[in-house]
Amino acid sequence: MDKSLKYLYTQRNPKTYTEVSALFESNYQKNLLLIPTLNEITHNNVIRHNKKQDLYLFIEDKTSYTTTFVLTHKLVSVNRPDIRFKVYFDAKLLEVLSVCNKTMLNNARPYLAQCSDINIQLELNTFIEKWIEYCLDKYKGFIWQIT
């Protein structure tokens, strides 16, 4: 096990809700760059890309103020990274609920018992932050289409 990974789980200075909340806000803003009409989407969408994997956005649940989405690539037999997230439109926040088929990104980590819910939230939301940045690099400017 990498010593830096062990340090992440055993460090004395736990993360705060303020740090995680700032990430929720930042991810909401970055996601709007990738999906400018996010609050208007009512159907599943896709970005078709002839040189990269197509990028899919599925709607799981929609209410007046929130929507739960899944952002993924459809591979041969599985969707990956299959990021399930909830957008709070009134608060302008994006919270990751799960990564990869409803399992947390770090479910097999040996130090998970020493990791707080806030640290898990930080890890999941840092993952989508990096993935949105990747998607912006690969798909920005492409048009979302109803599937």
Provide structural commentary.
Helix 2 packs parallel to helix 3. The protein is globular. The chain has one domain. The chain has a six-stranded antiparallel sheet, with helices on one face. It is built from three helices and six strands, in the order ααβββββαβ. With 147 residues, the chain is of the alpha+beta class. Strand 3 and strand 4 form a beta hairpin.
Helix content: 25-40%
Please tell me what the overall shape is.
globular
> Segments where pLDDT lies below 50 for 5+ residues?
102-106
Order of helices and strands: HHEEEEEHE
End-to-end separation? 42 Å
Strand order of the largest sheet: 5-4-3-2-1-6
Backbone structural class: alpha+beta
% residues in beta strands: 25-35%
- Give the number of helices: 3
Biggest sheet descriptor: 6 strands, antiparallel
- Total E-strand runs: 6
- Based on CA atoms alone, the radius of gyration comes out at 16 Å
The chain-level mean pLDDT equals 83
Number of domains: 1
Secondary-structure map with pairings?
Layout: H1 3-10, H2 17-34, E1 45-47, E2 55-62, E3 66-74, E4 79-88, E5 93-99, H3 117-139, E6 145-146
Antiparallel strand pairs: 1-2, 1-6, 2-3, 3-4, 4-5
Helix pairs in contact: 2-3
